[in-house]
């Protein structure tokens, strides 16, 4: 990846985010209103066409069944440590963005000073919204040992969300409290609460979602008749 | 999404005999016992299939658009969906009218950049367009005058080309102001369409509504004209105080049927001020403004501490004008 991919310094000054990966969940996850994974992968790819650092990996969605988050993280770690040249493109991914962090000095983007791949490997972190952090409390949704492995071995980057109190969730959980140094709470200075649930509801009612989704994704949804109340597009007919 | 339309009263129950009705296209008929009943279709206010019964509406948004954001664009989509869903209106066009530089707002960058960004933002829209008339005027123009200008333009269009649909039948083609200027066909007294001339309405967020209370920012007669002669479509965060605000103003209350409050369920905090702040701090504005706008801003380095210092210490044009006009009419004050 070229140095131009590198992001501006994070407020911590410690990290340099070099990649973001979206891994849509497997169909057998069974969540309500989940459309077929090939659609979800296609839409994510369309949305990221113009991004130079975030990409989609369909690997998880292509497996025979749903797998726990921590297993996906482990798989990525394992394959990364085997790969000498660290070709990030071939890594399987997770159903949330993952930030690969380099512990190299990030202030200087001079390629000659970029550490070689054999030096510190980028760290893999789970990126999620505060609502996901809250789901750690839901009985039987996560195994405690998995939660611990995620925060202890990998790390979490949690983006705030309206109506949620991530600091509170951390304090309420012994595991999270213990590894809170490895949980980074990213604030969202400009709130933009576009939930997929709202989008699906608006589409079902024939309302416009323009400027909430990329035009290419809206066109895809229309062309494939997704998310409408009767199985067909009930919108106004045009992306106007 | 729900909406609060002040022409509606309580929920309508089919079959309920009502002694007073509101907004029905025609009164019910009497049955054999002389009891006044209502046809089911009137009760349910089905959308009339004949579109000529609908009033055509043009949504006009005035503002700094410094820069234009996805939130501004969402206002139009929400306003259009809402008005069309009432069954009484058909939104045919949306106009973005960036304010002129003479407005003298702090941090306001030159109009030509703001116009270009708005045009980039609406490039892929079939019904939104950017109008430069306001920004080309030498002095700042009151909002009511911008409304008047566009309403008069629509009336002229309607007279000259009564059969010509303004927009929706011609996808991809937007009428440009200079085309209209060059149009030299004589005005013929034509029979107007059954809907009459399209009506311009002011599209805004709750902040504009609440700014009516800022001393000397608006002339009372302007506010009155806006709500009496044109109408307001105000997109508000669900649970906001807009209704209370209207209740507490005699002028707004009197014309509440012409004020449409539209709920915005997605908390959308993407104000231009925050965008400019994020840019000064090197934070990403990706996905908050259209990609083309973000690229344009980056390419021209439009927003930084210097740009934010523009007009510092300068009094805002409407305040300047209203205060000095008050002084002239009350020299002893």
UniProtKB/TrEMBL annotation, chain A:
* Gene3D superfamilies from the UniProt entry: HUPs (3.40.50.620)
Q: Where are the transmembrane segments?
A: none
Q: Which reaction does it catalyse?
A: beta-nicotinamide D-ribonucleotide + ATP + H(+) = diphosphate + NAD(+); nicotinate beta-D-ribonucleotide + ATP + H(+) = deamido-NAD(+) + diphosphate
One MF annotation (Gene Ontology) recorded for this entry = nicotinate-nucleotide adenylyltransferase activity
Swiss-Prot/TrEMBL cofactor(s): Mg(2+)
Enzyme Commission code(s) on record: 2.7.7.1, 2.7.7.18
Which BP terms does GO give this entry? NAD+ biosynthetic process
Its annotated compartments are: Mitochondrion
Hey, which family's this protein in? Belongs to the eukaryotic NMN adenylyltransferase family.
The UniProt record lists the Cytidyltransferase-like domain at: 17-201
Task: Give the source species.
Answer: Cricetulus griseus
**Stated name of the protein:** Nicotinamide-nucleotide adenylyltransferase
Q: What function is annotated for this protein? A: Catalyzes the formation of NAD(+) from nicotinamide mononucleotide (NMN) and ATP. Can also use the deamidated form; nicotinic acid mononucleotide (NaMN) as substrate with the same efficiency. Can use triazofurin monophosphate (TrMP) as substrate. Can also use GTP and ITP as nucleotide donors. Also catalyzes the reverse reaction, i.e. the pyrophosphorolytic cleavage of NAD(+). For the pyrophosphorolytic activity, can use NAD(+), NADH, NaAD, nicotinic acid adenine dinucleotide phosphate (NHD), nicotinamide guanine dinucleotide (NGD) as substrates.
* GN (gene name): Nmnat3
Keyword terms, alphabetized: ATP-binding, Mitochondrion, NAD, Nucleotide-binding, Nucleotidyltransferase, Pyridine nucleotide biosynthesis, Transferase
Primary localization: mitochondrion
Q: How does it assemble?
A: Homotetramer.
From TrEMBL, chain B:
- Needed co-factor(s): Zn(2+); Mg(2+)
CC annotations in GO: nucleus
**Superkingdom to which the source organism belongs:** Eukaryota
Q: Name one GO biological process term.
A: NAD+ biosynthetic process
The protein's annotated pathway: Cofactor biosynthesis; NAD(+) biosynthesis; deamido-NAD(+) from nicotinate D-ribonucleotide: step 1/1; Cofactor biosynthesis; NAD(+) biosynthesis; NAD(+) from nicotinamide D-ribonucleotide: step 1/1
GO MF terms listed in the record are: ATP binding; nicotinamide-nucleotide adenylyltransferase activity; nicotinate-nucleotide adenylyltransferase activity
Q: InterPro entries annotated for this entry?
A: Cyt_trans-like, Euk_NMN_adenylyltrnsfrase, NadD/NMNAT, NMNAT_euk, Rossmann-like_a/b/a_fold
Family assignment? Belongs to the eukaryotic NMN adenylyltransferase family.
Query: Per its record, how is this protein called by name?
Result: Nicotinamide-nucleotide adenylyltransferase
| Organism (species) | Cricetulus griseus (Chinese hamster)
Q: What is the lineage of its organism?
A: Eukaryota, Metazoa, Chordata, Craniata, Vertebrata
Gene name as annotated: Nmnat1
